[in-house]
Amino acid sequence: MHISLLGATGRVGSDILSLLLENGHQVTVLVRNSEKVVPHPSLIILKGDARVSLDVEKTLEGTDAVVSALGTDQSTVLTEAIAHIISIMKKQNIKRIVTIGTGGILASRVEPKLLRYQSSESKRKSTTAAKEHHKVYDMLRVSSLDWTMVCPTYLPTGAATNAYTIERDMLPIGAVKSTTGDTALFVVNELFKNEHIGFRVGIMSPT
Q1: First-to-final CA distance of the chain
Q2: Cβ partners under 8 Å of residue 48, min gap 6
Q3: In this structure, what is the dihedral angle of CA atoms 100, 104, 110, 111, given to the nearest 10 degrees?
Q4: Pair type for strands 43-47 and 26-31
Q5: Contact, 106 vs 151, CB < 8 A?
Q6: Which helix (H) or strand (E) holds 60?
Q7: pLDDT tens-digit series, residues 140-176
Q8: Residue spans of alpha helices (H) in the chain
Q9: What is the mean pLDDT of the chain?
Q10: Which pLDDT belongs to residue 85?
Q11: Beta pairing partners, 3
Q12: At what angle do helices 77-91 and 128-141 cross, to 10 degrees?
């Protein structure tokens, strides 16, 4: 399969890229700094900006599915990019997308009518990133795409344990962390298994 990957130089994105290439897939990445990506025979590296529609269009051209590991960067880069991605996916008749969100946009257990970042469940002082991911969630919900939003909690750099726990629309009870390796592994598994289309998925690594 040919996959478009945005955010390939980030902590989770780089792990996703490695897994896709190890499993024999062709990948096209869009990066601002091409020197941060190691060349590979199955990898197409495009230099550009995910906020630029033409750059996104070139990245998605001829691919079968999209993975976005883009972060918020404390700006509107994420929502700008996702708006282009959704529009171009529809134009190019690409249906499948898996994105990285945040545990803050999962449903709150203590205040069910709220998301975690809006409730007393959240301990974070800043809600900037969560609000951006919330906007992305709303955009995907009303799209006609086959989307899944993977929502880790505290995200330390760490290898995949393959012993992660997941739950649709909520953070698994007792979740303390979601390693970058486990998050990337679940993204790749879900991309091909299609078990959680139309859902946010909370993920927890073992402590």
Answers
A1: 34
A2: 30, 31, 32, 55, 58, 59
A3: -100
A4: parallel
A5: yes
A6: helix 53-60
A7: 999 999 999 999 999 999 999 999 999 999 999 999 9
A8: 11-22, 53-60, 77-91, 128-141, 180-193
A9: 96
A10: 98
A11: 27, 65
A12: 10
Dihedral, CA of residue 190, residue 11, residue 200 and residue 123, to nearest 10? 150
Cα distances from 173 to residues 11, 27, 74, 90, in angstroms, run 25, 35, 28, 36
CA separation for the pair 169, 159 (Å, rounded)? 24
Local confidence band at 136 (pLDDT 50, 70, 90 cut-offs): very high
Weakest mean pLDDT among 24-28, 71-75, 89-93, 100-104: 71-75
Per-domain residue ranges of the chain? 2-204
Q: How confident is the model at residue 22, as a pLDDT?
A: 97
- Which DSSP string do the residues of 103-148 spell out, in sequence order? GGGSBPSSSTTSBGGGSTT---S--HHHHHHHHHHHHHHTSSSEEE
Q: Which fold has domain 2-204?
A: Rossmann fold (3.40.50)
The tokens describing 89, both together, are 């996916």
Tell me the pLDDT tens digit for each residue of 45-73.
999 999 999 999 999 999 999 999 999 87
Other C-beta atoms lying within 10 Å of the C-beta of residue 61: 14
Phi then psi for residue 29, to 5 deg, are -115, 150
| The amino acid at 52 | V
Give the whole-angstrom CA distance, residue 74 versus residue 105: 16
Q: What's the pLDDT at 94? A: 98
Give whole-number Cα distances, 49 to 40, 78, 192, in Å.
Answer: 21, 11, 27
